[in-house]
Amino acid sequence: MHFALSKVDLIDAFAVWRRNSRVYLRLWKTELIAPVIEPIFTFFAFGFGVGALVTSKINGLSYLSFVGAGVLAFTVLMRAVFEMTYGAYFRMVYQSTYDAILATPVNAESLAFGEILWAVTKGIIDTLFILPLVIIFGSATSAFTPLAILPLTFGCLFLGSLALGLTAHIFEIDHFNIFFALFFSTIFLCGAWFPVELLPGWLQIIAYILPTTAVIDLTRACLNGNFAFRHIYETVYLLVVSFVLLNWALRSIRKRMVV
């Protein structure tokens, strides 16, 4: 079995990425409203609202420090997911952008790779804007804070690939409601707002299987400098899952777009 990644032409994929970046540059003011405003209100709600009720330390951290990684990761990952669900679906179905691109020498795999690359880039852009807010609110206390961009990048790759692969199999836009219901339900298990260890044993197993848990845990380690041996396993697991889902997404777009 060959990998779909072997069919990717990086120059063509970059052309797709550049097309999306040009659209973004025309709309950047409205594009940045959500990733800047949402974390501020979330910090007030969880960091100060719920945080005022949590007086005990969580793994040696105040609740405000603990929840900072959840706010950052949740906002960034959601942007990548929305880009590869509704954004990709509109380009694929309503705007026929994919059809136009595939009418050129660009193949389906390069198109999909360029789309996912753009979702990752958008996540990185949002990280650069949100990370200073995390520092201002006092949720980042480590010199390793800038490294938080690494797990978030791979998190966007993992979820962007998953979202695009699912989008390739969706033929009614309302079906995204099922995906987002599951996504929002599972995100509460991933240690964003409270430690995974507080869950029942069987739910902890599910939480640790979800790669999003690794993304949030690695991000929290970067923000607070509390690194552990398990982070090596989480990094490897995240890379493997990202590679598998990326390959699946490329295959799915070819199956959807090429007759």
Run of helices and strands: HHHHHHHHHH
Number of strands: 0
Mean pLDDT over the residues: 88
- Helical amount among residues, as a percent range? over 70%
Structural class: mainly alpha
pLDDT < 50 stretches: none
Please report which band the strand proportion falls in: under 5%, 5-15%, 15-25%, 25-35%, 35-45% or over 45%: under 5%
User: What's the tally of helices?
Assistant: 10
Cα-to-Cα separation, first versus last residue: 21 Å
Give the CA-based shape: globular
Whole-angstrom Rg: 19 Å
Major beta sheet summary: none
* Total tally of structural domains: 1
Give a written overview of the molecule.
- This protein has ten helices and no strands.
- The protein has one domain.
- The model has no long low-confidence stretch (mean pLDDT 88).
- It is 73% helix and 0% strand.
- The protein starts with 9 loop residues before the first helix and ends with a helix.
- It has 259 residues and is mostly helical.
Brief overview:
The chain is built from ten helices and no strands. It is mainly alpha-helical and 259 residues long. The two termini are 21 Å apart.
Write the layout of secondary structure elements.
Elements: H1 10-31, H2 33-50, H3 63-94, H4 97-102, H5 108-136, H6 149-167, H7 176-187, H8 201-209, H9 211-224, H10 230-257
Helix pairs in contact: 1-5, 2-3, 2-5, 3-5, 3-6, 3-9, 5-6, 5-10, 6-9, 6-10, 9-10
